[in-house]
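Budget justification aside, the reviewers requested a transparent look at the raw inputs and outputs of the sequence design task funded under Objective 1. We therefore reproduce one unedited record. The lines immediately below are the structure tokens for a 233-residue chain.
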């Protein structure tokens, strides 16, 4: 059993387990995914020991059980899909998409006011830039369907939770040159540490196959020691 296998078994459900958690069949999971009413699996491990990640592509997966792996939080999206189907029938997928994108846009609007100025979507006085906000919502929707957020967001139970992780990462990246800046004043470090902690809570741990290239390594595990050193200096 590999470290990757242990990670997937700890943090994800294979398709049979996910279907059981949703009290449905694996066929229904496939149908909802194809209808754009459920995110695709975040990881697919093949029988020839390769893993396909929604973010990082194909990698080695020796010692890892084959299967499709879903974040447990996707049970929430399954329930939302069922509610949309019950209420809207053939229009369920369209309503599901509209609801996700509206919630995401509303969350970005709130985060722009409280956490970080989202320059491509709002002017300096907070007026929305419709084209920029729409582009962000479209991008989020596509990556939601791909299973990206089920890979990188610790608890992707809502579009608002997804938006918060994205803006935390955007702010932290901007203030640290995406983790490349190494020297900080004590004051800078004290301001940044709570942001690092918030991002660490919002972001997934990432699998051993992805960790060397992931944002968590750059913006949490590599960055925090430099900030602590600046405070101690």
């Amino acid at each position: 059993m590999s470290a990757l296998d242990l990670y997937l078994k700890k943090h994800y459900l294979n398709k049979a387990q996910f279907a059981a958690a949703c009290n449905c069949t694996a066929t229904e999971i496939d149908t909802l995914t194809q209808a754009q009413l459920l995110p695709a699996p975040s990881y697919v491990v093949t029988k020839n020991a390769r893993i396909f990640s929604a973010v990082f592509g194909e990698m080695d997966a020796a010692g890892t059980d084959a299967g499709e792996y879903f974040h447990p939080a996707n049970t929430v999206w399954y329930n939302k899909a069922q509610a949309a189907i019950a209420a809207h029938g053939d229009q369920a997928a369209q309503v599901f998409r509209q609801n996700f994108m509206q919630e995401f846009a509303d969350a970005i609007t709130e985060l722009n006011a409280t956490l970080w100025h989202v320059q491509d979507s709002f002017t300096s006085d907070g007026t929305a830039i419709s084209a920029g906000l729409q582009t962000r919502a479209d991008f989020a929707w596509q990556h939601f369907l791909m299973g990206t957020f089920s890979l990188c967001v610790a608890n992707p139970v809502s579009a608002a939770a997804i938006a918060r992780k994205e803006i935390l990462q955007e702010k932290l990246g901007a203030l640290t040159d995406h983790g490349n800046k190494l020297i900080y004043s004590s004051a800078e470090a004290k301001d940044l540490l709570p942001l690092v902690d918030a991002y660490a809570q919002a972001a997934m741990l990432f699998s051993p196959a992805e960790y060397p290239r992931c944002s968590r390594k750059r913006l949490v595990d590599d960055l925090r020691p430099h900030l602590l050193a600046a405070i101690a200096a």
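The beta strands are 13-14, 43-45, 50-53, 57-60, 67-70. The mean pLDDT is 97. Computational costs for records of this kind are itemized in the attached budget.
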